[in-house]
Design goal:
With 398 residues, the chain is mainly beta. Helices cover 0% and strands 46% of the residues. It has no helices and 29 strands. The chain has a 5-stranded antiparallel beta sheet, with no helix packed on it. Strands 2-29-28-27 form a 4-stranded antiparallel beta sheet, with no helix packed on it. Strands 3-4-5-6 form a 4-stranded antiparallel beta sheet, with no helix packed on it. Strand 28 and strand 29 form a beta hairpin. The N terminus is likely disordered.
């Protein structure tokens, strides 16, 4: 895809942001799949490290504090289940400056009865050595995505989202149970869970960003993407409120289901962006408004040329006070072009956009994340490549 300008409607002009500019560094060229990328301080040195859920290993890469040098690699868990690892969550949830880690494994999307595993990893004093896995006794099959979410000022929870509902066949049957686990005082004891939602029959990803204008909401917020559309969930005291933002209603002009989903702030609008459908070809921006009690989501397709879109992030990489979209695609078959692009809004209403290709066929993007790795105040892009077997940092040169 070439850098292009997407003009959708006439709108008030603003000064054009600078073009994104990056330099690439592969810090690992032995990646098998690169299912999940997480960014957190593992060893307490106040530098953001990279964690990777690869097919048979969980690795972390120590941040050397500067560009273009080696990132020491440490394997902290491997061969935990018969099938692959599939996701990872890393976050300092107890305030000691070092992250806690959970992983999802036993990945077999065709087995909606017995697949799926969730582990909490207990670190040794030397975090470069193997960590002790604690397997959760109660999980849903097809464990697929997970994140730590802040529940209150003092508490974090682990949200785990399966791909399918238990016993589902061809997307029919029980709904997907989105589970919230609470950390016990003794991490080797049972992690009790509650069901946050079971209204979808296939889900693909979720995001903890606030994506609905709401002056009264507090505590946990997330937006969930799946076959039926996009659903916003938020806690208000003991009450769990649910609002459908997008519905897959069969109308070809609307969503055909949501794969990746992220919240962002683009100019005036509280927004979220999606890849549609699952593993799809469309990058879509939704600008939200809330007149009265009814949420309105204005849908705008930015491109329909993605080839297996599979990674998405929002952040201000250019330092302009408004987010940009980072999207990665992995290709459907050997020889397909793959890569990563940055989409920049050029007005304050999200009506005019610029696409910049920042990784041209170098990373068959399975997952990506944004973080300032070298402390220069600019967000860098960290991406794992499936068919390209690499873990790449795109250093922000702006």
């Amino acid at each position: 895809m070439k850098t292009l300008l997407l003009l959708l409607t006439a709108t008030a002009a603003i000064a054009a942001p600078p073009e994104p500019k990056f330099s690439a560094q592969d810090i690992d060229k032995t990646v098998k799949i690169g299912y999940g990328v997480a960014i957190a301080d593992v060893d307490g040195d106040k530098l953001a490290d990279i964690l990777l859920a690869d097919a048979r290993q969980i690795r972390w890469y120590k941040n050397p504090g500067k560009r273009d040098v080696e990132w020491p690699r440490h394997v902290i868990a491997e061969e935990l289940t018969k099938n692959d690892n599939v996701c990872i969550a890393a976050q300092d949830i107890d305030g000691d400056g070092k992250c806690e880690v959970a992983i999802g494994a036993e990945w077999n999307p065709g087995d909606t009865e017995k697949s799926g595993a969730v582990f909490y990893l207990i670190p040794p004093a030397d975090r470069t050595q193997k960590w002790e896995p604690v397997k959760f006794p109660s999980v849903e099959p097809t464990t697929h995505r997970m994140k730590w979410l802040r529940l209150s000022e003092k508490e974090w929870g682990l949200v785990v989202v399966p791909l399918h509902g238990r016993g589902n066949k061809n997307g029919q049957g029980a709904g997907v149970k989105v589970l919230l686990y609470r950390k016990p005082a003794d991490v080797k004891a049972e992690w009790k869970s509650e069901v946050l939602d079971d209204s979808m029959h296939a889900t693909h990803n979720f995001d903890p960003a606030k994506t609905v204008p709401d002056s009264q909401g507090s505590g946990m917020k997330l937006v969930l993407g799946g076959r039926e559309g996009a659903l916003h969930l938020r806690k208000r005291g003991d009450e769990l409120l649910k609002v459908w933002l997008v519905r897959n209603d069969g109308n070809p002009a609307n969503s055909a289901g949501v794969g990746e989903i992220r919240g962002g702030q683009f100019g005036e609008s509280e927004s979220f962006v999606t890849i549609e459908p699952m593993h799809g070809n469309q990058l879509v921006h939704y600008a939200l408004s809330k007149p009265g009690d009814e949420v309105k989501a204005q849908r705008r397709v930015l491109t329909d040329k993605l080839n297996q879109g599979h990674a998405l992030a929002c952040g201000d990489l250019l330092g302009v006070g408004s987010d940009q979209i980072v999207v990665g695609w992995r290709g459907a078959k050997p020889g397909d072009k793959v890569g990563i692009a940055v989409w920049t809004p050029l007005d304050d209403k999200g009506e005019k956009w610029r696409e910049t290709l920042v990784d041209d066929n170098g990373t068959a993007c399975e997952d990506l994340a944004l973080a300032d790795l070298d402390g220069d105040g600019k967000l860098d892009i960290i991406a794992a490549g499936r068919a390209t077997h690499n873990l790449r940092v795109l250093w922000n040169l702006r």
